[in-house]
UniProtKB/TrEMBL annotation:
This is Phytase A. It catalyses: 1D-myo-inositol 1,2-bisphosphate + H2O = 1D-myo-inositol 2-phosphate + phosphate; 1D-myo-inositol 1,2,5,6-tetrakisphosphate + H2O = 1D-myo-inositol 1,2,6-trisphosphate + phosphate; 1D-myo-inositol 1,2,6-trisphosphate + H2O = 1D-myo-inositol 1,2-bisphosphate + phosphate; 1D-myo-inositol 1,2,4,5,6-pentakisphosphate + H2O = 1D-myo-inositol 1,2,5,6-tetrakisphosphate + phosphate. InterPro entries: Acid_Pase_AS, His_Pase_clade-2, His_PPase_superfam, Histidine_acid_Pase_euk. Keywords: Disulfide bond, Glycoprotein, Hydrolase, Secreted. It is found in: Secreted. The active site is at H68 (nucleophile), D333 (proton donor). It comes from the Eukaryota. Its main location: secreted. Monomer.
Amino acid sequence: MMMMWVSVAAWIGLALYFPIYSFGSYEANLSVAPFSPNWAQYSPFVSQAEYHVPSNCIVTQVNLLERHGARYPTSGSAAQIVSAIDKLTAVGSYTNERMQFLVNYTYDLGVADLLPFGAAQAYQSGETFFQRYSYIVDQDHIPFVRASGSDRVIKSAMNWTAGFSAASYHVYNPSLSVILSEDSNDTLDDNMCENAGNSDEETNAWLAVYAPTITARINDGAPGANISNADTYSLLSMCPFDSVAKEKRSPFCDMFEPADFEGFEYSGDLDKYYGTGYGQELGPVQGVGYVNELLARLTSSPVQDSTQTNHTLDSNPETFPLNRTIYADFSHDNQMIAIYAAMGLFPQSADLDPTSPDPNRSWLASRLVSFSATMMTEKLECAGEEHVRVLVNDAVQPLAFCGSGDGLCSLDAFVESQAYARNDGDGDWEKCF
Ligand SMILES: *[C@@H]1O[C@H](CO)[C@@H](O)[C@H](O)[C@H]1NC(C)=O
Ligand SMILES: *[C@@H]1O[C@H](CO)[C@@H](O)[C@H](O)[C@H]1NC(C)=O
Ligand SMILES: *[C@@H]1O[C@H](CO)[C@@H](O)[C@H](O)[C@H]1NC(C)=O
Ligand SMILES: *[C@@H]1O[C@H](CO)[C@@H](O)[C@H](O)[C@H]1NC(C)=O
Ligand SMILES: *[C@@H]1O[C@H](CO)[C@@H](O)[C@H](O)[C@H]1NC(C)=O
Ligand SMILES: *[C@@H]1O[C@H](CO)[C@@H](O)[C@H](O)[C@H]1NC(C)=O
Ligand SMILES: *[C@@H]1O[C@H](CO)[C@@H](O)[C@H](O)[C@H]1NC(C)=O
């Protein structure tokens, strides 16, 4: 695997570097992939803030939690997408200019796998991580890496380690040490809580609000296709899926008006909020296991948890060491949402209204759980005292629940604030069964 930096600075006088990643038989050019903030959880990672450490502090430990990189649609979504596209291609002629590409269109996306684009983002994340934190890396302190057991998560973790290693000129070569089976106790997935509900009621209520005019417009452009509102959602989703797969703007994006994607985006925001976030009674408890592992690492003390942790793994220093400076865990969007909710990140003053989005809402899936989204929990030493801060996609979280809201909490106050996790979810875990 190799990487080239193509500098355009030389002829346009700007410090812009477009990375082109070569992975054996394929290349991924991160600069050409379009980004739209309205793609919700299908937005590629974009850093939300410039990284800097407060002047009187040094970082002594980092806990990275990262979503897998961009992927193909999962099997369920792919089936719905294909069914919607089939309705459009079956009619064969279109009165809408922007649908002409369908005359000769064949669906060609894979299923659920990590894309070259997603692999490149994971690789770049590993590089950036090394560059940022190299001062807490040495041969005894290379990252301890775990992944949830899905292929795309494992490959994201391995591309991250490859990027980390390359950035260190192969001096430090972390490996993926633990893969947690998604069929058993797994703090990096949301598969264990049997009674947890889903977001269908809320996303369907919103579909009935935003989709009908779009559906009517598409049906006008493809007379006889008779697509449904649910088909409209699937066709909208082809804009991000096809774009990240092809690394260029998909013709499906141009079938719609820009405002249509605001409806699509809110659907994603609702899905996360009511799926495993604050709007799901048994959402936050699914993040408790990870938070208890985090507390163990921050305090160098054994994991105490009776929810999703695997005690066999977490009580063994080979599979859950407590003497590292860097821990990197790879996971999924729904699980990261559960973890944010268990910790108290992105607090909401009221539940998201399924039929009326707040244009100023802070709950945006694109910021919370983009492809390759990151949460970094840093332990810092500031004037001799231990502190904690949390960054999501590089944005420092205020942590008003344990400090003054400037993003810095004392380690003790942070641990104290995590009572929900330390109490195994205040009885919620039992409600899962
Ligand atoms: C349809 O697509 C195929 C394969 O991409 C191509 O060979 C053919 O020329 C196209 N036909 C038209 C009418 O565009
Ligand atoms: C960390 O703990 C492991 C397992 O007990 C041990 O093998 C390793 O030498 C320790 N590393 C450091 C830097 O203390
Ligand atoms: C990175 O991801 C790609 C695409 O999924 C995969 O083919 C490749 O094996 C991964 N690289 C490593 C080092 O695992
Ligand atoms: C715990 O992890 C071990 C080692 O991976 C595995 O063999 C075991 O099945 C896991 N148990 C549960 C309940 O997840
Ligand atoms: C259009 O599809 C709906 C189901 O989505 C069906 O109930 C209706 O009968 C169809 N209309 C026509 C004209 O085929
Ligand atoms: C797996 O989780 C269940 C449910 O919390 C727990 O009862 C069991 O002890 C755990 N198993 C292991 C090996 O940690
Ligand atoms: C959203 O924020 C803007 C700017 O702060 C404000 O003018 C507007 O009233 C807010 N809208 C709602 C619905 O809260």
